[in-house]
Amino acid sequence: MAPLHTIPVAKRPSSPLLQRLRAAAFFIIFNFGCLMVNGAQFAFLLPLRIAYGVLGLFGLGKRLERAYKDGVRYTKGGFGCLLVLMCQWFAPSTIRVTFEKEGMGKFVDLDVVRRDERGNFDYLDLPQRFVLIGNHQVYLDWWYMWCLTYFIGPQGVHKNVYITLKNSLKWVPVVGWGMQFFSFIFLARSWAADRAQLASSLSRLGMEAEEEDNPLAFILYPEGTLVSDQTRPISKKYADKLGITDMSHTLLPRSTGLHYSLRSLAPRIPNLKLLDVTIVYPGIPPMGYGQDYYTMRSVFLDGVYPPLIHMHMRMFDVASEVPVGDLSATRANVVPPSGNPGKGKSTVEVDIPEAEKGVFDAWLRQLWTEKDTTIESFHKNGATGHASEGKEPDVGVDLQLRLKRTREYLDAFCFLLPAGVVYLLGKARS
Question: What's the whole-model pTM score?
Answer without folding.
Answer: 0.93
